[in-house]
Design brief:
- The protein has 10 helices and 2 strands; from the N terminus they run H-H-H-H-H-E-E-H-H-H-H-H.
- A hairpin with a 5-residue loop joins strand 1 and strand 2.
- About 5% of the residues are buried.
Length: about 270
């Protein structure tokens, strides 16, 4: 009750003062009254002073000309999953501002033919933004699956282009219907034909097949070399490292078993 009796005259005086002063003066008056009239622990709100100029696009001046700038690691998905939606929204703009600053500094260093300090910072910021976007997608999918039974993503389908190469096309809304949208129909053609296109497809598929075959042969030869050099190697780990190679089948080959040393006394 004593505290309320002390606050009553203060509130009457403040109501008269605050009607004629600005917000900053009002906060100063309120703090002075509370600190002098009532002995209570008071903690002021600390905020950073915004810089509303072009220097927002540049790094701190103490980092100019440095060979290396100290920085931390990027944001992982596990770190972002424990954050609230409001924190993720704020963090996105913080990372966006940091990315713009780093891109500006990188361009400035290239113009002056200087070394950009710690260029891995830009990679970490981009990786953090990708992880944040993926976490937001996870939450959106979970919400829409719970509410509507759908994932909430934009619908899409695999369509061929004019050269016959298939790609995943994501649909999006248009104001003009499809049959009346002349520009969209001219830009998006999902059909192909002609002898030249079919010849290109045959050569393209042959190239892809040869690349896969060569990669499979390289992995097989590498596994054979490892088994001949290290006969006691863990075959399960080797199978995980090279999933496209049948390690057990290669282990039974004669050219691998010949190189295994015979036990002593035989």
């Amino acid at each position: 009750m004593n505290i309320f009796r002390q606050f009553l005259p203060i509130s009457q005086q403040l109501s008269k003062c605050l009607a004629t002063v600005s917000s900053q003066q009002a906060s100063a008056i309120l703090q002075r009254y509370v600190c002098t009239r009532v002995i209570l622990p008071v903690r002021t709100i600390a905020t950073t002073s915004p810089r509303k100029d072009l220097m927002e696009f540049f790094d701190d001046k103490k980092n100019w000309g440095e060979q290396e700038v100290k920085h931390g690691r990027g944001w992982t998905r596990d770190d972002l999953r424990i954050k609230s939606n409001s924190d993720l929204h704020k963090l996105w703009f913080v990372l966006l501002k940091e990315r713009n600053m780093l891109l500006t500094m990188e361009h400035e260093c290239k113009e002056k033919m200087e070394l950009f300090p710690s260029p891995e910072r830009l990679d970490k910021v981009k990786e953090s933004m990708e992880n944040l976007e993926e976490v937001v997608r996870e939450r959106n999918r979970a919400y829409y699956l719970l509410e509507t039974g759908e994932n909430g993503e934009r619908p899409g389908r695999v369509r061929p282009n004019e050269l016959g190469i298939r790609f995943f096309y994501r649909s999006f809304e248009h104001v003009i219907p499809k049959f009346a949208n002349r520009k969209w129909n001219e830009r998006h053609k999902f059909t192909f034909g002609g002898s030249a296109v079919w010849k290109f497809l045959r050569m393209y598929r042959e190239r892809l097949y040869n690349e896969k075959r060569k990669l499979r042969n390289r992995e097989r030869n590498e596994v054979v070399h490892l088994l001949r050099r290290f006969p006691n190697i863990d075959r399960e780990t080797l199978a995980q490292r090279f999933p496209s190679v049948d390690v057990e089948k290669l282990y039974k080959l004669d050219k691998i078993r010949i190189n295994q040393s015979a036990p002593k006394g035989s």
